[in-house]
Every structure is written in C-alpha cells, then in structure tokens.
Amino acid sequence: xxxxxxxxxxxxxxxxxxxxxxxxxxxIPTTDFHDSEYSADxxxxxxxxxxxxGTNGTLVVSAAGRDGRVQDGAGLWTDGRxxxxxxxxxxxxxxxxxxxxxxxxxxxxxxLRDTMPENTTLGFDGRCVSRQDGAKLESMLAAKQIRLSTExxxxxxxxxxxxxxxxxxxxxxxxxxxxxxxxxxxGELRAKMQQAGAKYYVSSKLDDLMWLTNMxxxxxxxxxxxxxxxxxxxxxxxxxxxxxELTAKVRSYCLKRGIALHPxxxxxxxxxxxxxxxxxxxxxxxxxxxxxxxxQEGMKKAAGKAADGITMRLxxxxxxxxxxxxxxxxxxxxxxxxxxxxxxxxxxxFLYWISQEADIAELTELDAAKKIDAMRAEISDFIxxxxxxxxxxxxxAAMMHYEPAEGACAKLKRKGMLLxxxxxxxxxxxxxVTRTTALGPVTAEMKKAYTLTAAGNLxxxxxxxxxxxxxxxxxxxxxxxxxxxxxxxxCGTGHGIGYVLNxxxxxQNIRWRNSKGADExxxxxxxxxxxxxxxxxxxxxxxxxxxxxxxxxxxxxxxxTFLCFDPLTFAPLDRDLLDPRYLNDTELKWLNExxxxxxxxxxxxxxxxxxxWLKAQCAPIHA
Length: 623
Fold this sequence. Notes:
The protein is of the alpha+beta class. The protein folds into 3 domains: 3-157, Creatine Amidinohydrolase, Chain A, domain 1, CATH 3.40.350; 171-324, Creatine Amidinohydrolase, Chain A, domain 1 (3-Layer(aba) Sandwich), CATH 3.40.350; 327-617, Alpha-Beta Complex (Creatine Amidinohydrolase). Helices cover 34% and strands 20% of the residues. The protein is built from 18 helices and 28 strands. Helix 15 (444-461) packs across helix 17 (585-602). The longest helix is centred in the middle third of the chain and has 28 residues, at 330-357. The mean pLDDT is 94.
C-alpha cells in the first residue's frame, strides 16, 4: 500500500465489507467492550481506519449504494483538544473533521438522523456502543425506518494484522487484603437486587467486577482489571473471562465460592439463551447496547414459557456495586493510609531531587516523569502506574491532559514551574497526587495564582459539612479564592479513587456543574476524593495542586451529624510559589497545620538530606 494513502485505502476496503453486509453507514467509536478509560491496541479500530490517535473521537463512514442515495464519505467527530492533531494525522485519508461544540456542528447522532436517507441501514459493533446511545439512535432513526445492524465488527475483515485481545493471568486479593470476602460482598449485592425487585444483575463494568470478586488483572493500561462479564442471580454467580487468564489458584477459588466460569465471548449468547424467571437489573450507563439486545432476546423467549404471576422486565438502576466499593471498609482505609504515606515520601524525594540535585539543563519533561516513575516502582508492593505521568512546564502545563513523549516534550530550565501529576497502584491501594514546583525565578502573577490555588485546596481539605451534602455543595470552597479574581478551571475539583483499582472512580465527585449520579451521591465516611483546583493560562503556564482526602465523621450535635476530611497525601506546597499577602490568618493556619502533618508523617520515611530539606519546606510561614 502507498503509505501516503493507506487510510484512504483501508476505508475503501471497509466500504466493500459494508456493501457485502448491506450497511450504508458504519459508526466506529473510541472504546472497548466495557467503556474503559484506556483502550488496548485491539480496540483502536477508529485509528486504524482514519489515522487519528487521540483518546476521544467517533468515525462515521458511508458507502455508495446502487440507487445513488448514499455517497462514499467519512467524518470524524472530536473535541477541541484534538483538532490540530486530527487534521494532521488524517491528511489524505478523505475524512472530514467535525469540530465538536463549534456553532453549527451537529453531534454524531443528529448528523446520522439528518443525513441518512429513509430505509437505509446503520451498522456498528453493539458491544462498543452504550445502551444509552444505542437506544437514542433507535428512537431518532425510527421515523425514517432506518435499520440498525449491530452484530458484526465489519472492520475486523479488513484489519488483517489486528493485535490480539489483551489477555493476562488473573491474580487474587486475599480477604485480609480486601477487608471483605466474596460471600459478604455478593450478599450485599443481592440485598440491593431484592430492594429493586430484581432476581438477576448483569454487569460489564470491569472495576465493579474486580472489586466484587476480589480478583485483579492486567488487561487495561494503568487499571488492574481483567476483561470480564458478570451475571448474578439470587442463587447463582456466573463469571465470563478468557480461559487463558485462569490459573489453577483462580479456578480453585471460584470453585470453592460457587462462581461458575464461562468463556469471555460466550456472554451475549448466554444472555440470549438464559431461562429467566424474574426481572433483570442493570446499569444503563455502563452496559452496551449489544448486551441489552441479548437480554431482551432472552427474556422474550423466557416470557413464552414463564408461569403465571412471574414478572419479567429490565430494571434500570445505578450500579449498586459502584457505591459499595466507593465507601472503603476499615481494612481498605488502613492500607490506603499506609501506602499514601510511602507514596508521599516518593513525591518528597522527587521534589528534593528536582530542586537540589537535578542538572536541569540536561533534562526534559519526559526525564522528570521517568524519574518519579522509577522512584515509585521501588515501593515493595508496586504493581503499575495508576495513569501515565504528566510532567509539564511552561505552555504545556496549561493543557490539563498533556503527556510528555519521546521527541515531543519540552526541555526544563531553571525558571518558571514544573507541574507533575502522577500516581501508582499497589497491593495496598491506588494513589494520585499533583504538585507544582518552582524551577527557578517565577513571576508575581504565577505566585498569586499558585497561592490562591493553595487557598482553595486548603479550604476544601478543612471543610466541615452536614451529613447529606454532596460534592456539588462543597465545590465552591475550592473555587472561591479563584472566583473572587474572575479565574476558574474548566474541570471538576475532585473524583473518587479505587482500591487497587481505577484512579478515577464514582459515583461521588466534587464539581459545581450538574453531573448525573454524583449530584445525588452524598460524601460519606470512608469515601475518598481528590482535591485539585488549578489555574491554566493558555500558552503561558499551568498550576495544579492535588491532595487526596478521606471523609470521616467529625462529631454529632443536636443539629445533626457533621463530617470532615483527613488528608491522605503528605507533600509540601512550594514555599517559593507562596505569597502570604494573598492568605488570610485562617488560611495561613491551615497551611502551617498541613505542613506540620507532612513532616510528622513523612520525615521518618526519607533519607537525612531529604529530611533536612523537608523540615525547611514545612517550617511555619507568617504574614
């Protein structure tokens, strides 16, 4: 193939497959079968066909038919982070760029509704499209009698050298490590099912399934999960996974707990053929359209044989497992507190190194990322990074999701700031922390922005609230110092974090914008949230301070129960970036109290030279 036109040739081959299948338009989203945060190479079909490698985008391809109503074409939808990248990577492929959010640009679903002629067919892999989007398409296209073809991955016939499906050995957390065994967890799930009037629960959410079963895997980058599905009744438990992932130990574990094992690719046929005798509960936000179609098929068959009086319906509900795992049990809390101290010691060593020992002139952002990654990997029970490390200086730090790469990163200089957002997954928990540090002289504007960011961070850390408050109630505490000067950050303030699981976890979060699920989820004792306000000045600099917090009960009065946070992260804020003029007496008190806690919790875990530096960093600051 001609390298310059390889994507155009691949799209032509895809159109041939579309015509064979009677498909006029074909949609390829960016996700795996489980809507994971990171997709393995096997699932990068959209990139294979159009060349665009960003993490968000949907490709729609049309194939000319015999009646001339449809023409060959292709379009990619992506957000503003990727417009320049997409235009460069798709050059010559014959794919139009649809800039999401721009005036006059339709979203994917509206485009299909308005563009597809009547009595044509839209194809997509039903395993890679959410139930919500599938149902919307079904509804929006019904008036034009447009058919949906969801059973085939048409791209598979073209992608001859497709990487294999991720497949790694599953390992187990002991009940002692997890704090609760499978029997206890499945019992709690069944109680939730009974409350919802359901006999069955279906899940494809990987972190939910790993937490419930106390299994872990390595099939998704930076997330210790195994590709799997779960089907649970009031008496049965079925687990679907690739056979090569099962060790003798895992098989024995499942046998003893009555967990029936099935092939991973047998899940949809199982659902379509199961003899249901009651209602099925599922979370529509995390289950694919293909799964829903299979359940509907199975229930339709079962309904014809069901005895009188048996109710069979699909019950949509938020995942009960998500909330169960969000509230950490006492063992999880203990382990998390321990690992965060060790992880914080790594951050302190890195900050010392970058400020005292590093030959900055010889370093790039990628070198800094590799340094902290290597330090973290020395912790005894380290498993993997919890996300690719962000190390950014200058204009790069103004991009919230910037990631340095070989040949595409900035050199460090002894001026300005360095933002490092990093974390690890260990057998005792998952960590996430951001610190912004001065590399040399900084401007007055930078110091003011950093100090007000610190004020917001400390205000949320020291929050006291009544039981029942959600993250939406608390968000203003972190933003107020910045809002007072007309500044804001275009992202949430905080997210939940899993236990030896995904670094981003719900249902709780901290943000002021409406967020379905999180708006109704109260912050309760045992929940973990990040506290990460920031300032991002396009083309100039970026600042983020992220401290991880755990909620606990503070006390009870005649007016009710009050809660507060304990910090899990213990790494100093940068003295060279703090300007006490922008802190009131209360904020200075909070800062000094936090620094005292940093020294008390970390000093014994670091070397003498780092300890001496840390003591100076944590010394009281006065107005």
